[in-house]
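User: What would this chain look like folded?
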Amino acid sequence: MARRFVVTGGAGFIGSNFLQYIVSRYPNNLFLNIDKLTYSGNPANNKELEDRNNYEFHKEDICDSSALESIISE
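Assistant: Here's the prediction, encoded as structure tokens.
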């Protein structure tokens, strides 16, 4: 992978549409979707991205710095 990008709130309307657009256009980059899945987040919004090798979903709170550090450093 060339670069890693973190997208927060990627299961909501705007975030999921952004990911649908960007993941397919940049297959050599890794996109890390971090979402707490509150009232507006729905992982089904990114169902078609689940099998892509340049996309990962992580259900985490972005306020949890240790969780973020663990995800980003993988």
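The helical segments are 13-25, 65-72. If you want, I can go into more detail on any region.
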